[in-house]
Design goal:
This protein is of the alpha/beta class. It has 2 domains: 120 residues, Periplasmic binding protein-like II (D-Maltodextrin-Binding Protein, domain 2); 86 residues, Periplasmic binding protein-like II (D-Maltodextrin-Binding Protein, domain 2, 3-Layer(aba) Sandwich), CATH 3.40.190.10. The chain is 35% helix and 26% strand. The strands form 4 sheets. The protein has a 5-stranded mixed beta sheet with strand order 9-8-10-7-11. The N terminus is likely disordered. Pfam families: SBP_bac_3. This is Transporter substrate-binding domain-containing protein.
Length: 243
């Protein structure tokens, strides 16, 4: 057993001696990663991953539903311990440790009705178009910081899809693993994906607040997550959620 493994075991032993804490994971709905059942219980890929992380690490995790923007603020202050499904940004990295390795990746894409997406062949074709996006989300550079684009932010992906379906917005940006799943469940408006695809993926991480009182447990969770990724367990868990 290597030095890192002994260090992780030492952290776990210290937790058992002191009484293992329960870490709070703040998150919001984002199908198919995080969905709500009729009893308001979370389910989805991220939830399956968290269950396995809890079993592998011996660290108790509890979920708390919080709007995404507020969840980020709670991570910034240390009121919350963890977030899952996080894309990396320089601003977030000031108060979040991104536990390695990343566990999943999606591709940003633009969606709309056929007439709206047909002209989109390059990034330059976005100029002069109204584009919906989800507030506090990270997609790709230069889109995220491009003040020359006509961007309209809304709180949730579900609201964004409804606006495009009803013609209130002609285009939206989303991640393919989320929007493709949503459209596979229902697509009465016939929304389509544009041919233009940004070149860089949206890489997803489990993040730990740098101000969490349980920050020292980060390596334990990271080692458990690494084992899940390298063994193919995450890929197996993901298959039922892929359209």
């Amino acid at each position: 057993m290597g030095k890192t493994s002994w260090g992780v075991l030492g952290l776990l032993f210290a937790c058992w001696v002191q009484g293992a804490p329960t870490l709070t994971v703040v998150t919001d709905v984002w199908p198919p990663f995080r969905m709500l059942a009729q009893d308001d219980e979370f389910h989805g890929l991220d939830i399956d991953i968290l269950h396995q992380l809890q079993a592998r690490s011996g660290i108790a995790l509890t979920l708390k539903r919080v709007p995404w923007g507020r969840a980020l603020k709670q991570m910034q202050t240390g009121q919350a311990d963890l977030m899952i499904g996080l894309a990396h940004t320089r601003e977030r990295a000031a108060f979040i440790d991104y536990l390695q390795p990343p566990y999943y990746q999606c591709r940003p894409a633009f969606y709309g009705k056929a007439a709206a997406v047909a002209p989109l062949k390059t990034y330059a074709d976005l100029r002069g178009r109204e584009i919906g996006y989800v507030l506090n989300s990270a997609y790709f550079a230069p889109f995220d910081d491009d003040s020359q684009l006509d961007k309209h932010g809304v709180p949730t992906e579900d609201q964004l899809l409804r606006m495009v379906e009803r013609g209130h917005l002609s285009l939206m940006i989303g991640t393919d693993c989320q929007v493709d799943y949503a459209l596979s469940q229902r697509n009465d408006a016939g929304l389509m994906k544009a041919d233009y695809r940004p070149p860089h993926p949206v890489v997803l991480y489990l993040g730990m607040s740098k101000h969490s009182p349980h920050h020292a447990l980060g390596p334990v969770l990271a080692q458990a997550l690494q084992a899940m990724v390298e063994s193919g367990e995450v890929a197996t868990l993901a298959k039922p959620y892929q359209p």
